[in-house]
Amino acid sequence: MIKTEIYEQVLFETIKRGATEISPDVKGAFVKAIEKESNLDAKKGLEATLNSMEMSKIRENPLCVDTGWPIFYFKVGNNCELEGGFVELENAARRAVAKATELGYLRATMKHPLTGYDPGNNIGMNIPDFTYKFVDGDFIEISYAAKGGGSECFGGTRHRIVAFADGVKGIKKFVVDSFVASARAGAVCPPSVLGIGIGGTANVAANLAKEAACLRTVGSKHPDPMFAEIEEELYDALNSLGVGILGAGGDTSVLAVNVEYAYTHIAGIACATSTNCMVARRASTRINADQTVVKMQSPMWFGDR
Known about the structure:
With 305 residues, this protein is an alpha+beta fold. 40% of the residues lie in helices and 21% in strands.
């Protein structure tokens, strides 16, 4: 049985790592973007941003002043035993978020949607958010993803129903239009990691888009060739727009385009986009049944992607 004190400490350390350390795949994407950038000012901007993110790890400072929504993804083995069960797991996550906020790894950004009341610890109704995936095994994998306010609130998340008659072309047009509008809003911090959800109900598509943006490794490809082709074509199309770093121009407007899908109703195709800002903050940790702890390089939410 995995003890409460073990998973509570892992929760806190995962939050801290996600808030202060750039993921290896994101760093690799920045290095690639710097190498190919032809715009001198954009190259300098990318270099300065990467240097800032590397200093955040050294100094244990937040990667960005917007530390985002506290969002947890739990990949749980069917035979996993947690002391206190899942209720205590969620209580421990709340305590870890409050501790990370008190120590300055997170800013107190969560407020009541109508009154503006700020509890000061990022804890409130339905926040933190918890998503579960159950698999074979006796372990638990904890992923923390901080979804930024700009990329979520100011146009970075969009939804539309595409008619079957419009097909793939309709989906692509929606994605390009959405990205252009989001970038024009000035708050999604390109070069972005763009998640796209296709199919299901509106909320299913939106959740898939968010998971694709926050949990897919930058540089991965969808295993289905049809969706991998859409990813590649949209990646090329969006980078050809010349939006560049923070909209100032350049060769790299998106670091990745990640598509996930669900079967849909014959009435139409729900489509959603979810933009993750360039820092793409996340961290994942696995706790095995023997209580050994492993820092993961990738969330592995979608298998080996």
